[in-house]
Queue: 4 jobs
Job 1
Amino acid sequence: MKRLVEIALGVVTGIGGFLEAGSLATAAQAGADFRFDLIWAVILGAACLAFLVEMCGRLSAISKHTVPDAMRERFGFRFFMVPLVIMQLVMYLVMATELGGVAIALQLVSGVSYRWWSIPVGLLAWALLWKGTFGLIEKGVSVLGLVTLAFVVGAFHLHPPLADVLHGAIPRLPSHDRAHYWFLAVSILGASISPYLFFFYSAGAVEDKWDVSHLSINRITAGAGMGFGGIVAIGALVVAGVVFHPAGVKVDSFEQLPILLTSALGHWGFILFVASLAVACFGAAQEIALTSAYLMAQGFGWRWSENLPPSDDARFSLTYTLMTALACLPALLGVDVLKLTNISMVVSAASLPVVVLPLLVIMNDRRYLRDYPNGWFANTVVSAIVVLAFALAVASFPLLLTGGG
Amino acid sequence: MLLVRDVLDKQMVDRHGNRMGKVDGVVIRWADDGAPRVVYLEAGAVTLARRLGRRLGHWAAGLAHRWGGRHTESYRIPWNRVRAVTLELSVDVDAEETRVNVVEDWLRQHVVEHIPGGRK
């Protein structure tokens, strides 16, 4: 019974945690510009994430190491600095995006500019970390995150032609706007395969003292959680494909997006959209702030736990405090949140090899995984998707810089 | 046991099981009989900076000299205090009695406890 609850919670975490500013915005843009043609990118991203989450859980259960612990130990401090610095920069961009997303949700209901909301939102996120525990944050975020299922409900309400949706699940070459198509494909991959998610997951597995007996829970949680999570993102893409594509709408701000759900679900759609955006982005922001602190603490051997009061792990709690404070700045300064989202997602995709390839080396090292190392299938799938995301991201940089995204 | 593979960069825990930094460096000395011996493990930012580059090391040592008061070098733990090298490296010291947590303690007293909710 206890195991069932754990599995349910794990799956709920996957569903509730999948959608955030990046995956929502990129799905909406993809649906608007290419109808259902980019569904395959969401599937590829979710599959890759599922593999990575499973690996990190397995690493923690078998070796009792978190990912940063293992990376520093296996590759040494000099090498470890590379993923550390790159991940902190990427997480900063993504966290600023998420806080911006919450602020925009509040602007949509209040009419007060998102710039004014960034500080209260940041303060609230910080206060919950400061006083809350790991369980509260993880479970609270994931249960509330179920509101994002509204996109799946919305997609069904609009009766999209099922054959076309299934057709979109097959990767294809673009029929028009080639550069823009690949740019959106890599944005979707970058949004789905978020390193912060699997680092957070590995810290959680160590905090919850996982062992060999958790391996099956881990597999189910990763597969079902990320699978259903991917379906939420596909829901958003399908809704945008039905609502925006025929009308020729170009998505150039978050403020356009509530129409997605109001056209499917009426007035309730607006409320559900705002709630989804706010909850999903808020949850992601908290997980990123914590991951940033985990990464430092686990990399430098500090005391760490989200279950300790801040006075017992001062450096850990000040790291997430600083991260949250700095991440409020872009929205406060009035940076365009959608542009920030697109930049963050491409940069995130470009950073993947630095983080994922060392992880794969560790996952094949029997000193850590003993009798449970990676199989060739997981190795191949993850390396292929990560290399693809990296190549597309590098190719997209010129487009990103010229603002043509 | 291999020093770089099994000791360097490992998590250290004190005798109460509290995390107390990583093994940032290993100090080896040539004994009178000419054989190299591990004498200390080092934990501290100056050691880490040295591992990143000579110039960065000089710079970190300079900073430590200016602001670190009496302590300008990384904290050293004698090798004979090492109790076990398994998943973690356990050393027979009490972290509270060493200066390995001086940054942690300073931040707690001067920053965390001044933030609402920061006191226990």
Job 2
Amino acid sequence: MEDMLFYDRMQFAFTITFHYLFPQLTMGLSLLIVFFKGKYLKTKIDKYNDAAKFWMKIFALNFAMGVVTGIPMEFQFGTNWAKFSELTGGIIGQTLAMEGMFSFFLESSFLGLFLFGEKLLGHKLHFVTGFLVFLGSWASGYLIIATHSWMQYPVGYEVLENGKFILNNFGALFSNPWLLPSYLHNQAASLVTSSFVVAAVGAFYLLNNKHSDFGKLFVKTGVVFGLISSLIVAFPTGDWAAKNVAEHQPVTFAAMEGIFETEEGGSEIVLIGQPNMLEKKLDNKIAVPNILSFLTYQDWNAEIKGLNEFDESVHPTNVPGLYYSYHIMVGLGTIFIGLMLLAAVQLYRKKLYKTKWILWALMFMLPFPYIANTTGWYTAELGRQPWLVYNLLRTADGASPTVSSGNTLFTLLGFIGLYLLLGLLFLMLAGKIINKGPQLEKH
Amino acid sequence: MELFWYIVLMTMLAVYVILDGYDFGAGIIHLFFAKEEKDKKAITNAIGPFWDANEVWLIAAGGVLFFAFPTLYASSFSGFYLPLIMILWLLIFRAIGLELRGQIHNKMWEAIWDKAFGIASLLLALFFGVALGNVVRGVNLGNVVNGVSTQEAHYFFLPLWNPTFSPQAEQLGIIDWFTLLLGIIGVVALTIHGANWIIFKTNSGLNEKLKKVVFNLNIVMVVLVVISLLVWHVIEPKPFHNFLDKPWLFIFPIITFTGLFGLFKVKTFKKHGMGFLFSSLFLFGGLTSTVASIFPKVLPSTNTVNPDLTLYNMAAHGYGLGVGVYWFIIAIILVITYFTIQYRVFKGKMDDVGYGEH
Ligand code: HDD
Ligand code: HEM
Ligand code: HEM
């Protein structure tokens, strides 16, 4: 039995982690493409249209990966988490069904028009189709996060005697206090990824002395959007998300921050240290006193309950994993802001395109927003453990009763093999598109 | 309310089969009949801008199933675990076969993705037929062994096959001779359907040949339909009782046969869309007749210990189903608008769309 649950969890974690590598670029990049296309409509400078076209190629490839890895997600609730689906389907099924009806149709219908319809539609309508694709992808993010927020902070429900959750207030699903901060934070983070990707490709062109015109455009666009979104990710949205966790899941918060003991007169913020789960303390700690209390409650001396005050049965199942995920996310976020600030200053002084080391840094930064996004989700998900629906339904009680561990391991291995192939193909083809570069259209 | 969502769900599934069905059919035609590059191009142009939106009908139908009939979703998705995951894998291969082929111009690369697209389409058509077979045949709900349930009454798990391949065994498998028959019907029906779509949307050199293919396959189809009606008795002693009780249900078989016999005129149609219209009727009628024959059951039980799953004992709670109607109506109007726009823009022949060119 335990094995079975373990493989179910591994399969979900593996497939969702892989899936989310693609939508985070889809959502942010669609905005940037709309930006380029809009610039073109305004200025009629061909460069912008060609930039939009170039990124559409990457977008199309990325979108295809997002779609093929997304469908397994939708099915897995039923295949691997049957009990959970049976009990909560009346509620989370709402938002998931709405996602299919409202956003996937929108995105996929207009994507075809966006990619192949430029000649048929003319530039204005082409811009509109691009905008609709953007809208669809952001709506998709919204409805998924609404679903997820309900699992973190259930609202508008009632539990029947047979254990089934039924919906009694539809509006509550969307006024969930968890939803807005989570959504804004996530979308800003997705824009971070896309800006960094655009900047990295631009830096690659500048450092190689090819497609320099585009290189400059990409670096500039990437840095401007990158700076704004990195700032928003930290404040107000990241801060807001953290306050939410502190308020509604104090035990999760303690584990995330690595606070084992409640401190009189205010908690310190931990910068570095390794959770020692045997002795329930942090090894090799470097911390700054009272900051955490201030950040969380705007009060230097506010009390923050330490992990040791909670009963072990409600501790997050993987405290070190949670703690590291959170610290990696926040640490990277700080680095992003720092780098983008430097780049923006150089841009302002018109020296950026010559400042080699910043260009190198921008280029090598490419994977890190992906890491930050992934660890962010691990913070959310590991923080929710051992619950599937916070405080109400345990993960162990949500798995499919009849699917044995041998079958789950079989499909998990299949997914791993298939996704490794997909990942390789994606990298190879994206590399090829980037290396070839944007083409100036000559018609 | 349950009945409303049942009709919505079945309609969405039928739309899915009609729309993505032509993509699968086109894939099968591509696999067996398209030898020259320009014919392959014609086929992928005819489905390229559409397949993704068509696939969304499956995802959305899955979503509606999840929300309106959570117990059925949980029970059937976990019970049919292996074939469903394999369908997911095949859908992945179908999609990347289509999307990646044009990215690199190299004979070997193109050959690999052509095969991936074609074979995945073929197997998907087969699997969907088998799936329908499993639903009408029913499953061993509660995994009853020697008259005792080993699971909750609405859960089960089926391996891919059992050694006897018999639909009457106590421990059933996904694939037995009955479900395989429906799988083959699925392949033939979708091949016809895909051929009709290609005739409709392209001027490819294949079109004349495809008309013959449709005609010949249609003969095979009639034979298969007759066989399946005969063997239906094996799995259900009174297979037509629903129709005899409620004669208006005969509308569905009538639609089926209109489609089936209409197709014999394929060579003389003036309008290229006619063939596609008839094969759509056939698919719609076939699917609806099948589910109507077991109504209100949605998944019959093959044992006497546990009751059938019906649309009434599987549904979500009333309030949720009620509010769903509001957003669903808004959504479906939007969806119809999108599809109208999409098919307007890509109206007529699509040989010049340039799908997959980089
Ligand atoms: C570029 C990516 C990125 C960066 C730099 C940050 N985050 Fe983040 N964070 C995410 C990407 C992300 C995410 C992947 O998008 C998550 C997962 C769930 C969600 O809604 O957003 C997330 C979740 C998340 C959560 C968990 C919410 C929950 O349990 O549901 C908290 C408390 C924070 N973030 C706080 C921060 C703070 C204080 C940051 C300071 C710099 C920060 N994040 C930077
Ligand atoms: C891209 C973002 C996401 C990532 C990276 C992610 C990651 C994970 C991980 C790592 C687990 C395993 C946790 C464990 O077992 O210890 C998990 C579990 C799960 N997540 Fe998420 N998740 C994401 C988004 C979502 C969303 C949006 C939903 C709901 C709609 C969701 C629903 C679930 C469910 C049902 C489980 C399985 C039960 C469990 O182990 O808690 N996840 N996810
Ligand atoms: C368990 C959770 C999830 C499920 C069930 C799921 C389901 C899906 C499905 C079925 C698709 C394909 C849609 C199509 O055919 O057009 C898809 C794509 C997408 N998903 Fe997910 N997804 C999950 C997690 C997430 C998360 C956490 C986000 C973002 C916040 C997200 C955002 C998107 C977006 C923007 C797309 C469309 C763009 C693309 O495919 O790259 N998904 N998802």
Job 3
Amino acid sequence: MRYMLTRLAGLPLTLVAVSLLTFGILFLVPGDTVDVLAGESIADPAAKARMAAELGLDRPFLVQYADWVWRAAQGDLGMSTSSHRPVAELIWTRLGVTVQLAILGTLISVVIGVAAGFLALRFRGRLIDRLIMAWAAVGMSIPSFVSATLIVLGISILLPDLGVVSYVPFSRDPLGSVASLMFPALSLAVVSGSMFCRYVQGAGDDIFRNADYVRTARAKGAGDRRVLARHVMPNAILPLITVAGLQFAQLLGGSVIAETIFSLPGVGRLVITAIGERDYPVIQGGVLVITMSYVLLNLLVDMVYPLVDPRIRVGSNGGRA
Amino acid sequence: MTRPVLEFEGVSKVYGTRSAGIRVLRDVSVSVAAGETLGLVGESGSGKSTFARLALGMEQPTAGTVRIDGKPTRILGAGAGGSAQIVFQDPASSLNPALEVATSVREPLTVSKKFNRPARDARVATVLDDVRLNEELRHRIPSELSGGQKQRASIARALAALPPLVVCDEAVTALDVSVRAQVLNLLRSVRAEYNSTLLFISHDLSTVAYMSDRIMVLYLGKVMEIGRTASMLEDPAHPYTTTLLSAVPHMQQGRLRRRRIVLGGEAPSIANPPPGCPFSTRCPIARDICRQQEPPLAPLANGNSAACHFPHMLEREAAA
Amino acid sequence: MSAAARKRRGLPRLSAPPLLWLGGGLALLILVASVAAPLVSSTGAFMPSAAVLESPSWAHPLGTDSIGRDVMARVFIGLRSSFLIVGISAALAVAVGSIIGMLAAYFGGSVDWVMMRLVDIFLAVPTLLLAVAVLAAMGPSAIALSVVLVATFIPHASRVVRVAALQVTAQDYVASARISRIPWYIIIGKHIVPNVRGIVFVQMAVTMSYMLVIESSLSFLGLGVPPPAPSIGYIIAEGRQWMEIAPWPIISASSVIVLLILATTFVGQGLDQLWGKENRARRA
């Protein structure tokens, strides 16, 4: 309980820090901020002053920040300087894609990782086990842009007839939508799946070897497979859910890469495009939305974790005997 | 009479707030003269560690004053008078595993005003000679030494800067019994040589008796009995002391043979001390008055003091 | 320290775990290659030539890119710059993080609380995204990149070192030094630092491996070391355009960066096996 309160207490401070930094990015840009926002160098001082007043840039920093936060809370994230549409609208239409990819990526990572982990446990010592262990060891060392690029490369070489798979909105065609995100999700799974695989191996191995109830089941004559399915699996999986939650947040944050490579119309790519166009309100808005979600998600998972901690659930001898 | 090296004047220590705190030490007063060794006996929770920390100046009393060489520990620093030193229980963690033993021994000298830089190395050599740690051992790191050797190094470190007081906190408890005697005897000889003042803490009464001129028995933060070792052992006043003695077989001599006394009752929690005498819940001879009125620490005929309504009674019964 | 003592102490260190040799050897190999290779054909890395998009040959072992530059030279120069930037940034981040962690552990109480809350805040944010935003705003440069990398990884290092430092601070020899009224900076320098050294080095290797991932991702997005300086991520980004006909830049650059990351990861794990446990369970 105490722990939860401590974590909650840190939340406002974190949110403030993050939003402050996001807002402050605009002022890190070299050159006069008025010029930056206007998109061009304004020579005439009078016109510049007018523009500054219009944009609210003549006020002290903290006031501008407070104003920005206040408006953001109400859903107003300013106007894009390149497309002249509300930033919030631009983000909202793309948020679904980003979230969908993150969900899909996490799901596939978990499925592949856990399946691989159990395969390795089941066929302990055999070739499959070693291959999977190799992947588990190496997987996290591959940057996501590398795996994504290599997958795209692989597709272009192996399936040259496959045209550009563009994203299909979920509302129009759910199945097709998922299919269109398959490769991006796979590219993410290659990297993060290894983590789940390692986790399952570690937890499963531990329980397999040491837990009392496993010994009892074996004493009663249960074979390896039965022990695995009935006893090891349920207890190893529970905390996995929280790790999956963290991974989901991670994928949200890393969406910039995958969306750029696979040309997906998500928030990440919106930010990257905006960087190219020097469209700072969009950059600020996009970064704000993603980082806020990330922080809140992490907090949620942090609070849930103690409830599913294997040490509490597995019982007295779930770990080292 | 020269002033005492260590003085506790009405010292109490409370952890937590005044209203909802744990009173770890309650109104303890004692003086230790120069060259004297005061033994401190008690079980865990008795307050003996807190007593040590207060004597070392690591903590300040909630009430009362602790003085070293006449100066309150509040304002004491290193240097001329210097602070007390300590020999810890665990040889493994008393010395920095990354440093040579001689370097560790040298440490207190680096802030001592008594020894300037050139004199320090000589002093280290001398004190290491005194604890009989030979030249080769001095330049080893702790993992290359035995438990007994490490404790000797700790003793050397404690004595290096000639502190007014040395606290031995269960200094031999972690050693093998055969090594224990060696180290204790070393302590005795070094003590004689330096005329050191020692605060010797242990839960083991026989060790304490071997080392100490006077013994103070603590229970639940209160002094139960305090007095000269010989007379206390021969004729203990407090039932708790009698009980402790009865458990040490080799201290039974001749007509002083006692039945082994086994305590019943429940060990009280220090957060919720019983009214009256703290020992009343377990005392074999507790009466109603014991549970209602806390006995003050009162002087006895033999010159010692005890906090009991019926001093010597259990001893008489047990010896009968 | 006597020679005998040094020798006695040196002995256990030599039986390093195989992982360490693997990782260390790999890293060393890559390092040497990255220094030596460009010397052989340094002009080829920057100067455009007519030999456009060629397949690997003796003249150009990894082929050429779209404007005729030698891919191998570019890859190794990129590797070298990554290694340099990440190496320095990791060292700096872990050094600063260690100091923070040790201070928090030694002083405890409110100092510890404040420092760790600050660390919590940093750890709660998605680093890649913010790095992207900051670098986008400031304009890519090696200095900005380093600053962002260092700032990102200080909190993590401080957390890890703090744990180790807490164990050390709990030891009796630290209490003894405090009783002797040794000044805090000497206690930290003489007692805490030597006993957390192993963990610090492990953390440097681990941090390097993480930084390499982020640095290459950033340069992939064009936010790393500014072009036309070659960097692994940028080479891969460039290579995407022509990947069907000339996949060599992508394949070689990808392999090299993954190998380097693996190497540093293995060095970290190997060092951990060697020094980490020793420090964690360290008693005299």
Job 4
Amino acid sequence: MSAQQAGFAEFYAETRDDCLRVVFASTGDRQAAEDCVAEAFARAWASWRKVSVHPVPRAWVIRTALNLAVSAWRRRRREVPLGVLAQPRSGLADSGPAEEADPAMMTILAGLPLRQRQVVALRVFLDLDTAATAQVLGIAPGTVTAHLARATCTLREQFTNAGREEAQ
Amino acid sequence: MNDDDLRDCMRAEFAQVKLAARMEDVVARGRRLRRGRTLPALGAGTGTVAAVLALTFSLAGAGGPANPSTHAVLTAWSVKSGPPGTVTLTIRDQPVSKPDQVKMREALRAAGVRAVVQTRAPRACQTIAAPELVTVSRHDGVITVKFKLGRLAQQPTIAVILPVIEIVRGRQQIVRLRPGMEQVPGAVGKELHRPVQQTIIKLGLAAPLVGLLTPDCRAGRGGA
């Protein structure tokens, strides 16, 4: 294994799960998120000379994965599923419910606007600061702060309510 | 609940979410993307692509004279003249695009193997036979086909049928062989990568079939 590939392998091992969590939390679709993140990492490796010197390589991967998710959504909205393709792939059984996030959590996240979800996911899972988050999402730092404040407020409220319901 | 609690709660909920894609698959996909930048990817459209690559090689005796110094190397495949009377075709990647097929045919002809490269399902008359004439090996995803021209000269025509690839678009992912190829021995399904909404499941360069063409088959009547 070359030094370049070793560097990428280390980067991949360190960041792949967090990147998936960010995209999954943003899109709400586990399979699509996995596809996007895997493809984003592949593109990162294809352009590793450039990505490796990026200030925040994982942010590059996230940005690419989110762009792919948008592109996929644009394509998918015009697609009509064929019956013959509707059979579930046997391999999907490997990623069973045990690997999914809590449905209640996903419901709460789904209640947030997309930008707020993305900001929260980037802050929680990647620990990106405001400037980096703004750069990844292509929005102003002030907008990130506003989104984060609103999302945090909503989530706190939702979690508190959920806790109360469980207690009752 | 403060910010830290909120963060811990979310992290805990997503702790089981892990990327299943293997590093080797991602790297292989990345390499493929790199190649796509450097080599013209003609014919590599998106959508459903099914390719049966059938390489039909005719005899050196029937074609032009063999040129032992022929040596054509491309990224995806190469044709090399080895010891006298042998020609080695190495295929490192698939599918071989249409322009590549033309180049491959020309390279093989230059090496003394008059070849017809085509993408179509194999005929029933293309039976598996004569492993002593053609050696097919697979190692680390690379197929090597060695032709012994001297021995081949005693046979009419030989066909090498490479594994089938099918790319299925859509959310569900399946591996499907083209009709007539379901019973390909040695075909190994291997999922290399799944880009967005486009399943690319490739039969990871399984050993190709090698068969002799019957006269009926060569005449286009498709014998049994």
